[in-house]
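Changelog note: in this version the structure field was regenerated for every chain. One regenerated record is shown below for reference.
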Amino acid sequence: MTITEADDQSLSRPQRRLLRRIYNGRSVPIVADGRPFLTYKEASQYLQSLADDARDSVYAEMKGKAKRASES
């Protein structure tokens, strides 16, 4: 299944682009909000299921953990 822009309507374009970079070829999941995410699809579907405030919080957590993982 191809992910289209309509599927990602609740995420901004910069958010979608960063998530794609974070999850491209990932072999170790990022744990955010107590759940492991290994693929872009898993992460974006979960973020879309959240309310706006919670979505921003979990997105920031994913972004922060991906940054720390890349610095290691």
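Spot check on this record: DSSP finds three helices and two strands in the chain. The first strand starts at residue 30 and ends at 32.
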